[in-house]
Amino acid sequence: xxxxxxxxxxxxxxxxxxxxxxxxxxxxxxxxxxxxxxxxxxxxxxxxxxxxxxxxxxxxxxxxxxxxxxxxxxxxxxxxxxxxxxxxxxxxxxxxxxxxxxxxxxxxxxxxxxxxxxxxxxxxxxxxxxxxxxxxxxxxxxxxxxxxxxxxxxxxxxxxxxx
Amino acid sequence: xxxxxxxxxxxxxxxxxxxxxxxxxxxxxxxxxxxxxxxxxxxxxxxxxxxxxxxxxxxxxxxxxxxxxxxxxxxxxxxxxxxxxxxxxxxxxxxxxxxxxxxxxxxxxxxxxxxxxxxxxxxxxxxxxxxxxxxxxxxxxxxxxxxxxxxxxxxxxxxxxxxxxxxxxxxxxxxxxxxxxx
Lengths: 163, 182
Fold this sequence. Notes:
A: 93% helix, B: Peroxidase, domain 1, 4-stranded mixed β-sheet
């Protein structure tokens, strides 16, 4: 211990203490001002932050309220849409049923018409063939006395007719 | 017959019938016009020659004069035919004859009936038709017969614009219509 604190060391310690004293004396005011300003800044920032936090809280509350309103609106809208959807579905089903009935009716009518047309065509053909056959048979079998009878028939009709 | 031809034929026919009425020759002229029409109908070459410019007018007039003399036409009718040749209108004597016949029939109270059968009806049948129709329409009836195998059987009578259709063709047609409408 005695060896460690030599005479030179005593001077170095003194110089250091003086240096510290000067440093304290020189830097006391600016450092104080620095810390005062810094403390003030930190205070104002803290106030600012608190203010922002309050505003954010208010906004949060407003958004919460709006969200709650939106949820209600959305709920009502969804309910209304569901109701409309159900009605629309009902209408569509009714319309589809009506259309299906109409198509079925039309189809039956068309089928009936086609059958009627086919029957008429067949009937016309049968009648045409029948009259052609009748004409052929008459031509083959008509005798002189038949013609005389037919002539007499025509003349009696003329006699009985009104002029 | 064209509209112009028909109109001219009616004018000529009316002129002839007016003269015939004055002279009391309506029936005679009808017969003579019918015979002239018959001649030209049978010999269309004569008619064409009389209306052909290739032959000079004097020759054509001479030919027509010869025809009228052969048929012994009344001079008034003969002159009329010569006028037709002169005016280049000889192309339609049949139209004039038909119009004249229609007018003279009206004047003389004659109705003409065409009797159509599958074969040409005989005279007895035509006379029966004349008798029946005379009693019905109170006119003198002149019936002519025609053959038309298309009617199959029965008779078809045409009097002026009226038709009595007793043909088998018509009966078959009626039967067909009736069956189609059932």
